[in-house]
Protein: TniQ family protein
Amino acid sequence: MIAVVPEPFPDESVRSIFQRIGLLNGGRRSRCDNSQGVLAVLVNQAGLPEKSLITDHSHVGYLRFVSKAHAAVPVHSHSDRFANPSLTRWPTAGPRVCLDCIGEDLHTRGISYYRRAHQLPGVEACLTHAASLVLPSPDQSGALLVGLPEKTRPVDPSFAEHLEHPVIERFVSLSMMALKSIIPIAPSGMTAALGRRAAMHGVRITVSGKGRRLSDWARSVLPAAWVATHFAALHQKPIGEHAPSVDDVFRARHVAHKTASYLLAMALLWDSAEDAMRDCAAAPTHTNCEVPTGAGRRALRAVLDGKSIISACRAEGANMQALEIAMRAALREGSFPTLGSIDGTC
Ligand SMILES: [Zn+2]
Structure:
C-alpha cells in the first residue's frame, strides 16, 4: 500500500492524482508502478474510491459520451475500466493549464494540479478566470504541480475572440456536460436525435441528400482559427465537399464518432445546450427511432399517392425496410396524412 494518499482536489484528473501521490511519497516511482494501469494503482494501492475516481476524476464519461459497446451502462461499471489505459489519458495533447488557477492553488494549497475540464477538445479558456489555457513546454510539465511554468504557449492565440461566440459557448457548455455524463448514449439514438433536428434546419443527413451540409454550416459561422485548431480534418476540406468527421454523425448508427464531432453538431442544431443534451440523452436506442432516408420518404409519398408498395420502392430506389422506417417516422412526427375515419369514409 502507498503510505501518503492525498484527498483528490475538485475536478482533478486521475493522472494528476497519480503524480501527486508520487511527489508526496518521495517521488519513488517503484511505489507507484503504473504497469497495472493508473486506475488500478489508485484503487488497489492507494485505496481511493473507484466510482468517484471514474465519475469525478476521469474522462470516461466524455470519451464514451456516445458508445455502442457501453451504451446505457454506467461509466463506473465498464468491464475494461482497469485494463484500458486510454481511459486515463487526456483527450487532448496535454497537460493544459490555467496560470491563474496554478497561482491560486500555490497560494492556498501549496501545490497545484491538473483539471479535467482544461483538457477537453475545443475548450481554450479556463471558465473560472476567462484566461487562456496554455501548454507548458514539454521539459517543464513535470514541475507544474509545485510552481508556475516559465515557458508556455497558448492553446489558441485567438482565444479571446472566441469567448462569446454563441456556437462555441454552447460547444463548451456541452463539453462540460459530456464530461459529467454517466450513461453513454447509443450511436443509433444519437443519430436519430440529430437527424430529427437536422430535418428542422434543412440540413442533409446523407452524402447526396438535399439541403446544406452541416460542415458547410459550421464553417460559415465559426471562426476559421477555432476550426483549424480543434477540427483540423474539417478545416482541410474544401467548402461544398462532404466532410466525414462532421457530416457523418447523421449516418453512422453502429460506430461512435469522436465526442467532439457530436458536440459540434449539437451546438449548431440547437439554440440551447441544455435542450440539446436533454433531447440527445433521452433518445431511445431501439430501431423504431431510425432516421428515414429521402428515398424511403419519397416511396411512402408515392404509396400514399396511389402506387403499389413494390412499384413505389422501385421507382424511388428504396427497399422495404426504408419504406417501413419512413412510415414509423411519419407516425412519430405526426406527419402522416389523415387516414380517414374508422367507418371507412374519407
Ligand atoms: Zn483558471
